[in-house]
Amino acid sequence: MLFTPLKVGAITLSNRILMAPLTRARSDLAHMPNDLMAQYYAQRASAGLIVTECTMIAPNTSAFITEPGIYSPEQVLAWKKITDAVHAKGGKIVMQIWHAGRAAHPLLNHGAENVAPSAVAIGGDIQTPSGKVAHAVPHALTTAEISELVHTFAEAAKHAVAAGFDGVEVHGANGYLIDQFLRDGANRRSDTYGGTMENRARFLFEVLTAVSAAIGSDRVGLRLSPLNSFNSMIDSDPIGLTEFLAKRLNDFNLAYLHLMRADFLQQQTGDVMTVARAHYKGVLIGNMGYNSDEAQAAMLDKKLDAVAFGTSFLANPDLPERIQAKAALNEPDQATFYSPGAKGYTDYPRLLAA
After folding, report:
1. Residues 31-76: tens digit of each pLDDT
2. CATH code, 6-336
3. Annotated catalytic residue, options 41, 71, 176, 256
C-alpha cells in the first residue's frame, strides 16, 4: 500500500509516503526563500507529496524569526526556483499557508501587535532577537479584520500557485490562528465566531471557501490537530470537535484532510483518527509517530489513505527508498532543527548506490 499511487484531488501521488510540514528556519530576516531550501526540498522529491514548512501569508506575522513568506513578488519568484527543483526530480509539492495569530510577537514584527480570536496570551516565553520574553497578549480581531484575513489566505493561495506549487495546505493546527478559533480554550468570543462549534469553525470554513474559489478545492488540503496542546491549546471536547469538522468538511471537496493523531506534550489523549475516518469521506492522511510498518497496516485496514512522516524525512532525504529497501534510518540531529546553514539540513547521507 505504501507504494501504491494515490489521487488527492487534482494531484496524483506516486506513493503514500508524504513529507509532513517541518519548520526549519533557513530563510533570512526578510523571510525570503533561498537556494539552500531548493536543495533541501529537491533532495526529498521521492516523497509522494512534500508539504512545505509553515509559510507566512502576510508581513509582520512571524513566530520563528526566519520562516519563509509568500506575500511579495520577490518571494513568489524565489519559491519558483524551489518548485522547479522539486518538479525536475518528479516530485509533487504543496505550500502550507499559515498565520501565526497569537504565536507571533511584536519583537519579531517591527512592533506590530499579534492577533487572535480573543485577548488571551500563550503561556510561557518565546525566542526573540532580544532573547526569551513572555508571549504577548494579542489583539482580539474585529469581524472586519477577520474578513480581511480570509482574503489574505486566498491571495496567498494564488501566490503559491503562481510560484509553481501543486496546491496548498491550509494550516489549521498546532495553536496557530485558525486553530485558535477552533478550540474553546483559546476562543472566548461571544459573537458569530465564538461559542458553538459551528461559530468557532466559521473562520476556517470561510478560509476554505475563499481559498477553494481562488485555486480550486481539488488543490486544497487542510491540517488539523484536535488533541495537540502545543502553544497552550486545549479544547473541552476534542473528539466531538473532530466529528463535527469531519462531517462538515465533506462539503468542501478538498484534496485531503491531514490529521495529527496525538499531543506533542501528552496532556490530552483520545482516538481522533477513528472518528475522522468514520465521518470524513475524502482522502485522510495520518501524522505523528507512525513507522512504516504501522503506516502500512493502517492503510491495509482502510484506517488511512496515506501517512505523513516528519523527523524521519528530515533526517532521511531518501526515506521512501530506505523503507522499500528495509534499510536503517539516519537519526535526526535535534540541535540543528532550527539553526542556520547546511549542517543538519542538506547533509544527511543517502543510501549508498548498489
Report:
1. 999 999 999 999 999 999 999 999 999 999 999 999 999 999 999 9
2. 3.20.20.70
3. 176
